[in-house]
Amino acid sequence: MAIIEAMGLCKTYQSAVKEPGLAGAVKHVFKPVFREIGAVRDVNLSINPGETVAYVGPNGAGKSTTIKMLTGILMPSSGSVRVNGMDPYRDRMENTKRMGVVFGQRTQLWWDIPVAESFTLLRDIYAIPKRRYEDNLAYLTEMLGLAEFMGSSARKLSLGQRMRADLALSFLHDPAVVFLDEPTIGLDIAVRERIREFLSMVNRERGVTILLTSHDLDDIKDVCKRLVVIDRGTIIYDGALQDLLDRCVRSRTMHIRLDSDVADFARKLGKQRDLEIVASGEREISIEFDRFALSAKDVISLAIASGEVIDFRIDEPNIERVIKNVYEGKLELSDAKPSADAKTPAGERANA
């Protein structure tokens, strides 16, 4: 049974349409005009317990609005949503006990009291049993390195320390599902890596379901196995991250190191169809080829026949470029073609 289930989820807003200036403001008072904005349109989403799902899209695509409906902050305009078997808006009090939420720009910490007291307050709010609270606090303190600042007030914490404390608070009551909206925004590399390691481990060890929104694609690659892409309020892709790369990465780049003349090698190989020499050096050459027309094995065979190959490598998939192309409307996911060569473990470079 799915822990998160959304069917035909929609959210619309009324936006005032005013003419500029004082006259326009006065006119709107007596004859208001509004236009309807569809923030989320017919979203269908089903997430099973223990899944790690990245929910991504360009700014204004509807990510945060969806999260707010799933957490009960907003009421859907139409459609239905169930989280932990409950309506998150109508059953907010009960559902809150079984979920955790982190918004990157907001905090659950009380500003003027020591961090440790914020944990105590949350313990009382969630009515966490004493033994369970102590065990969870010890686990989270060790995992996120909280001991160094538990006695400090929240206002004295750095952004990275505050975020680690907020994450710990969200997991303190053993939630079944945690919603993370940009949890690593503005953080330095070391803190981001620590948070990713923590999320992966808490999912693996405790089976917590994680729904993550982020513009940091390292968050997606390191934490999540499933990717949902939303654009203009509608889901345009829902599947494994690797499947998206397999479907959308048409070109691959192979870098070959030679023990022979590069110019002669380039002349021989340049006559082949469906490949292009994109760079060359003294003893190395880079070849871009259409993976739907040629496999990596085909290209290596052609290279060996054209010169003395010492070594070669294939670029890893460039998820940044794929996602960027999806955001900019340069990639039609429905038109992406599968390939028999898509599962080659060596790696690929996106050039959609």
Describe, in plain words, how this protein is organized in 3D.
The chain is of the alpha/beta class and 352 residues long. It has two domains: 4-244, Rossmann fold (3-Layer(aba) Sandwich); 249-335, Malonyl-CoA ACP transacylase, ACP-binding (Alpha-Beta Plaits). The chain is built from twelve helices and 13 strands. The chain has helices at 21-30, 63-70, 92-96, 115-126, 130-144, 159-171, 189-206, 217-223, 241-248, 262-269, 296-306, 319-327, and strands at 4-16, 34-47, 52-56, 78-83, 99-103, 177-181, 209-213, 226-231, 234-240, 251-258, 275-280, 284-290, 309-314. It has a six-stranded mixed β-sheet, sandwiched between helices. It has a four-stranded antiparallel β-sheet with strand order 11-12-10-13, covered by helices on one side. The longest helix has 18 residues, at 189-206. The two termini are 37 Å apart.
In short:
The chain is an alpha/beta fold and 352 residues long. It contains 12 helices and 13 strands.
Adjacency order of strands in the biggest sheet: 5-6-7-3-8-9
CATH architecture title of the largest domain: 3-Layer(aba) Sandwich
What's the helical proportion of residues?
A: 25-40%
Relevant CATH superfamily of the largest domain: P-loop containing nucleotide triphosphate hydrolases
Please state the structural category.
Answer: alpha/beta
Q: Name the poorly predicted regions.
A: 334-352
State the major sheet. 6 strands, mixed
CATH level 1 class label of the largest domain? Alpha Beta
Got a strand count?
Answer: 13
Total domain units = 2
Shape: globular
- Relative strand content: 25-35%
User: What string, H for helix and E for strand, traces the elements in order?
Assistant: EHEEHEHEHHHEHEHEEHEHEEHEH
From the alpha-carbon coordinates, what is the Rg to the nearest angstrom? Answer: 26 Å
Report the mean per-residue pLDDT as an integer. Answer: 83
Number of helices: 12
CATH fold-level topology of the largest domain: Rossmann fold
